[in-house]
Every structure is written in C-alpha cells, then in structure tokens.
Amino acid sequence: MKHLVLLGGGYGNMRVLLRLLPNQLPDDVTITLVDKVPYHCLKTEYYALAAGTISDQHIRVPFPEHPRLNQVFAEVTNIDIENQQIICKDSEPIHFDDLVIGLGCEDKFHNVPGAEEYSLTIQTIGKARVSYQHLSNMPAGSIVGIVGAGLSGIELASELHESRPDLDIKLFDRGTRILSAFPERLSKYIHEWFTDHGVEVVNNANITKVEPGLLYNHEDPVQCDAIVWTAGIQPSKVVREMDVEKDRSGRVVLTKYHNIPEHENVYVVGDCASLPHAPSAQLAEGQAEQIVQVLQKRWNGDPLPDELPEIKLKGILGSLGKKQGFGFVADRAITGRLARLMKSGVLWLYKYHNG
C-alpha cells in the first residue's frame, strides 16, 4: 500500500481530499491527515470571530470520513524528507510515500521590537479566540490599533466597529491609500466607509516599536488599549527550518509540478509554496487541483504533461461589516451590497460542498 500524508487541514489539503474521496482514491493508497485541531477552519473568517460577530462553530467544518483516511491530531515538529518521516510532538513518527505539505503561515512581525509580545493576532483559530476575549471585554471608549490595512485588517476594523461601535478604532496603513495594488475606486470607497463610520485610517504609517498600551508610528507614540497585528505573514516555522531552496519570503521553491526539486514525492501547497501570486485560499485550492492530477498520473505510471495550465484566480471579495463590501472580480471593481452578497454566497457554497 502507498501512503499519502497530508500535513495541515487547510484549504489546499481539503481540496486534495475532496478530489480523491470517496471514489477517486486508488485501491492501493491510504491517506493520513495531520493537523493540530480536529476540524477544518475557515481562516478567511477569523476576523469575524475575533470581532465577535460570528460563533466559533460557524467557522469549523468537519474533516471527511473514509475507511482509508486516518486522522492524526498532533503538532508537526520536523519533516525528514530523506528518511520520509514526519516527526510530531507527543506522537509516533509517520512514514510517507507521498507527502503534501500544507502547514500554512504565521504572523510576520518584521523585527519590530515588542510587536510579537504585546500584540493580538488572528492568524490561527486559537489566537482569534484570544483576541475575541480581549476585545469583547474592553470598556467603552477603549482605543484599538489595528496594524496592517490589507484584507484582514480592513475586514477586522469594519466588523469590530459593527460589533463594538463604542470603541475608538485606528487602522494603520503603510501605503498612501488602502489596497494600493487595486483600482483607486476601491480604495476611495473603503476609505469613505471608514470615515463615515468613525474609524480612523492612518496612511503612510510605519510602526517602529510596540509597548504595553503604546505603539510608535515612525517615532510618535500612540496610545492604544489593544493592538492587533495584521501586517504580514511568513511560512510556518517547520517549513522555514527545512533544508530546501526558498525564495526571499522563505517560501519553498518548487518544480512546475508543485514538488520540491529532486523529491518528486514531496509537494507543497498554499502559503508555504513559492508562486507568482500572493498567498490565498483560492490559490491553494487551484494548486491542490493540479497536485491531485499529478499524483494520479504518477500512481498510474502515466506520463506527466509538458506543462500545467496557469492557475487562474477569480479575484478578491471583502466585507465592510454585514451589509457592505468590495471586490475586484474579472478586472472589475465591485462595491456595496452586491459585493457583500457575493462574498456570503461564496462562503455558503464552500461550506455546502465541504461540510
């Protein structure tokens, strides 16, 4: 029997399972899924969990069940490619014949003193829970500084305002305008929404130090009763420690078939993979589709195609609370109620097909 091991139950490996189970898994292949928690988490919704507008249960999806799918709930501490073993904390080593690494990412604090020690984050479901407890218990009039005005920061700031309109929220953005890589129309719409709802956007920000109850924008101290860090990600520590070629962001360099060079049985999916697009759930799913095709051909002894098609991304969708949103789909900017309904629809479809 061949043994396929999937590290991490994120969007990429969930798509691998969806494509292989229940009827596309060869009779001589078994799968082991390794994750720290016993369910798939909708990471794109962690901002709402932290803001207190949805429940924990709302963003959990059960892993699929199958006679040849084994689930191990443990923390991966080392990936031994040469000996084809996975080392886990408080668990026996796991041998693999084929491996898909989808261990996701961690916060990147850019060596800002005090940022890791004194900031809340929403990078894992556990950290989002901690952030919720802290933010929900703050007294009225407290100041919340959100560092990073990417998609996560924008959605957290807007959702937190709806949940706790009594808080004073400041959103710190490094750029001259929000989402500067997208059309100015989107930036203007989001900025106006924040202005109309009393959320302060601080552009051209550069956070140089974080202390208890205080952050420094450039060198100017800004009082904050809570600081939430949404200003960057990096691959998980286990992947960063692997002795393989990586790009400048620490992501693993892969062949066109998504495997590590000289290790055709070891694939990397999602946030840890060096790809020409920014990490996203959509990208991980597109990559997983191709990994399954490659796996099936290799299992069957079939030749691989000369090239795999380019992964086409449909765009982005973001929320501004429960009633408004924004998006950039098919090279077209979308704002308002329609964008929010589209995002809700995408989430519903995902849960319907995976739940």
UniProtKB/TrEMBL annotation:
Keywords in alphabetical order: FAD, Flavoprotein, Oxidoreductase
GO annotation (BP), single: aerobic electron transport chain
Occurrences of domain FAD/NAD(P)-binding (ranges): 3-282
SUPFAM superfamilies attached to this UniProt entry: FAD/NAD(P)-binding domain
A Pfam family of this chain: Pyr_redox_2
Gene Ontology molecular functions: NAD(P)H dehydrogenase (quinone) activity
Top-rank taxon: Bacteria
Classification via InterPro entries: FAD/NAD-bd_sf (IPR036188), FAD/NAD-binding_dom (IPR023753), NADH-Q_oxidoreductase (IPR051169)
Cofactor names: FAD
UniProt key word Ligase: no
Similarity annotation: Belongs to the NADH dehydrogenase family.
Name of the protein in its database record: NADH dehydrogenase
Protein species of origin: Oikeobacillus pervagus
Source organism phylogeny: Bacteria, Bacillati, Bacillota, Bacilli, Bacillales
